Amino acid sequence: MVAIRDDRMCFACSPHNPIGLKMSFSQDGDLCFGHFTPGENHQGWSGYLHGGLVATLLDEAMAQWLWSRGIVAMTAEMTVRYSRAIPIGVPVKVAARLTGGRKRLLQLEAEVTLPDGSVGARATAKFLRVPGTTVQGPPIL
Questions:
Q1: What are phi and psi of 97, to 5 degrees?
Q2: What is the mean predicted confidence (pLDDT) over 94-101?
Q3: CA–CA separation, 1 vs 133, rounded Å?
């Protein structure tokens, strides 16, 4: 059995990665919540969060759902539906939850919401468990 440890350099969640997003996460029952406020260095079109970073927020929330439960898995497939542009400087919340799975394949969904409750983007994803691994140490929450 191989123990996967947090090396404190995750681009999305580590507070120690100098170029990272430094997202914070919490758990509430079957949901994982993340928070992020995009800055000017995160924009694509002037004044709006880059779409690739929106996808990163969604992917990380789902990965944190798994990691916090001791599941080592990697994204196998993800589909993102963008609904609204996300303005720079506006705090957003990302929520993720498990929707199904069997054996090594787990299905999750996540959404990014703006302060007014509107949804900026949603994602569904399939994650593959990494066989012969365990989580070493707590997740970054």
A1: -155, 160
A2: 97
A3: 5
